[in-house]
Amino acid sequence: MNFTPDCSQIPHWLTLKKICKAQAVLDLIICGQEFETYHRYTSSDQEEYEGQEARIGFDFEEDDGPSLHLYFIEKGCMIVPSVCENFQSITENFEKQIPKEFQAFYKKNYHEQDIPFVIYAQGDAPWQLITQFEIEEEIFTLKHLTSDPEFYKDWATIFFGDETEYLNDNASTDTIAQLYEGKVLTEKMVYSIVNNIPDWLFLENELNHLPYRFDF
């Protein structure tokens, strides 16, 4: 059976933008000094377009393994999955179907690559799916695009649990939910996620770079 992403399960793109930034903050709190973070959120450094880039996946430095790349503009978002192989047929005029607001970004980064589909949303319109070719394997990183704080906690407990001594066994889902809403990060909130912060100055610098508001 071919895999088709369920766009109805993805939050509104404005909500998703907050979630992506919050998950980048959580990764930094848990393991930012020790390991490559799984979720990243940075300003685009390419001059021809403005916006934010959120990246979700493994091994970004080597561009290897399953990942998602989300590109936020002022009035929308585009989601691009990893390159896939072992497909049989390609939809004609795939790139031409991508809205013009995302065209420059897509062509600069993905032109003639084996991207199975893109998902995009603009304004208050629902998410739209454009398929280039069908795939059988599920792209599980799409599950990270959820507003449920329990998902991140369960994932982090498994993913970071054996890799860092700092993650609390009872990390607070209330704190995660507050970060998903864009609340100001406090020292109390930090300690509801981890037992220790080895370098507060490092964390402050990273939060300023995102940027994300904090008070400590």
State the major sheet: 6 strands, antiparallel
**Distance linking N and C termini:** 51 Å
Q: Structural class from helices and strands? A: alpha+beta
Q: What is the overall pLDDT average?
A: 85
Number of strands: 8
Strand-residue proportion: 15-25%
Strand order of the largest sheet: 1-2-3-4-5-6
Unreliably modeled segments: none
Please state the CA-atom Rg, rounded to the nearest Å.
18 Å
Helical fraction? 25-40%
SSE ordering: HEEEEHEEHHEHHE
Tally the helices: 6
Shape verdict = globular
Notes on the protein architecture:
The protein has helices at about 15-30, 100-110, 150-160, 175-180, 185-190, 200-210, and strands spanning about 40-45, 50-55, 65-75, 75-80, 115-120, 130, 185, 215. The protein has about 220 residues and is of the alpha+beta class. It has a six-stranded antiparallel beta sheet with strand order 1-2-3-4-5-6, with helices on both faces. The protein has a two-stranded parallel ribbon with strand order 7-8. A hairpin with a 2-residue loop joins strand 3 (about 65-75) and strand 4. Helix 3 crosses helix 4. The radius of gyration is 18 Å and the shape is globular.
